[in-house]
Amino acid sequence: MELLEKVLSRENLNKAYKQVYKNKGASGVDGVTVEELFSYIKEHKEEILYKIRNRKYKPQPVRRVYIPKENGKQRKLGIPSVIDRVIQQAIVQVLTPIYEEQFSNSSYGFRPGRSCEQAVIKALELFNDGYDWIVDIDLQSFFDEVNQDKLIGIIRVFNYSKPPGF
């Protein structure tokens, strides 16, 4: 089965829907809420799948909100529409097992089954083993600054089964 068909499989999409519904969250620019999501999918499912399969799907713009930080500054947050979140979740569910094995075992940030607490415990273990240095990298604004073309090129190197358009 091609990668795109795995993403769009009924089982994967249902799992993605359940995850988005469970996470709740605010609506995007279209105003569709998580509570309205089931009805929206029922009405637009075939159109959405057709557009994705034919490379015509365009995610909606994100709704920009600002969240106050402890230092008095504000953090920009983009809120995608709930249907875009379902599609993103469906993609993540298929790609994570593929790319997860490429990550360093020493990496803890935003990884399934990993946490800040585990990183601290590992750091303490390394100190106890005699190591003097620990590298902590904060990727603040990473996607604002990274060269998108180079990033996609790197990702393609690790993609074992590239379907057309990916």
Structural description of this entry:
Helix content is 50%, strand content 7%. The chain is mainly α. A two-stranded antiparallel ribbon has the order 1-2. The model is unreliable at 160-166 (pLDDT under 50).
Largest sheet: 2 strands, antiparallel
| Residues in β-strands, percent | 5-15%
Number of helices: 7
- Classification by helices and strands: mainly alpha
Order of strands in the sheet with the most strands?
1-2
Global shape: globular
Residue share in helix: 40-55%
CA-based gyration radius: 19 Å
Note poorly predicted spans: 160-166
> What distance separates the N and C termini?
15 Å
Report the mean per-residue pLDDT as an integer: 87
Number of distinct beta strands: 2
| SSE order, one letter for each helix or strand | HHHEEHHHH
Topology:
Layout: H1 3-7, H2 10-23, H3 37-53, E1 63-68, E2 74-79, H4 82-100, H5 116-128, H6 142-145, H7 148-158
Antiparallel strand pairs: 1-2
Helix pairs in contact: 2-4
